[in-house]
Amino acid sequence: MKKILLAEDDIDFANILKHYLEIHNFEVHWTKDGEEAWQAFRSQTFDICVFDVMMPKIDGFTLAEKCIHHNPEIPFLFLTARSQNEDKIKGLKLGADDYIIKPFEVDELILRLTNILKRTSKAPIPKSNSKEIQIGNYVFHTYRLELKRGDKIQQLTEKDAALLTFLCNNKNQVLKRDEILQAVWKTDDYFSGRSMDVYISKLRKYFADDVSISIESVRNIGLEFKVK
Predict the structure, then answer these.
(1) Is the overall model pTM greater than 0.70, yes or no?
(2) How far apart are CA 133 and CA 191, in angstroms?
(3) How far apart are CA 120 and CA 227, in angstroms?
(4) Residues 6 or more apart from 136 whose CB is under 8 A from it?
(5) How far is it between the farthest Cα atoms of the chain?
(6) pLDDT in tens, 81-136
(7) Are 187 and 181 in contact (CB under 8 A)?
(8) Sequential DSSP letters for 99-160
(9) Are the C-beta atoms of 5 and 42 separated by less than 8 Å?
(10) pLDDT by residue (tens digit) across 43-96?
């Protein structure tokens, strides 16, 4: 049974939503505002979050940012009564796995949640010939999920490590986007593509101190992980 953190300030709507989600074998922890949801997120473990955008105390976007900082692996979906394109773009830039506009059919939400959970389930880290991979001035400890440069250690998430391992195994060659997505995310849909962009940006920051390492975009094709 997957556990959902639901943050929705419309009490009647939230009760209906909670009821139908529980019928479909989800465990639902409902909170009536962003602050209450943040407290719950810090004290409990959830498989996925469903956040209304417009909420008192802490809005859905700010709440998502806080949750991502606390746990970068958590998938989440936004609910909103507004259809402004800028809201959708903002949500996707935050790393949202989906975005649904009210009113909607509950069956549609359940299908979207099921699909998100399928594609965000923990991917096994691709096998490597070594538990330590030298990348320029860095050492990638695959078994500890660490990227080390001198005394500086960057802790990685499992998705960071899976992506980095795949790039290392295919360094200095152009990789198609859908090839990377299928290998690490097990799907090449739009939201997985946006998620990949977020993780690529993170890896670029991690390697920013070594000019011999770069992740270069190849227009209309994909990426190349260059290590001199």
Answers:
(1) no
(2) 30
(3) 29
(4) 207, 210, 212, 213, 227, 228
(5) 59
(6) 776 666 677 777 777 888 888 888 888 899 889 888 887 765 444 444 457 899 99
(7) yes
(8) EEESS--HHHHHHHHHHHHHHTSPPPPPP-S-SEEEETTEEEETTTTEEEETTEEEE--HHH
(9) no
(10) 999 999 999 999 999 999 999 989 988 887 788 999 887 766 666 777 777 778
Characterize the bridge pairing of strands 222-227 and 174-176.
antiparallel
Tell me the C-alpha distance between 226 and 128, whole Å: 18
Q: How far apart are CA 159 and CA 121, in angstroms?
A: 10
Fill in the amino acid letter for 50: V
Q: Which residues, including other chains, have CB under 8 Å from residue 77's CB and lie 6 or more apart? A: 48, 49, 50, 51, 96, 97, 98, 99, 100, 109, 112, 113, 116
Place of tokens 């936004």: 78
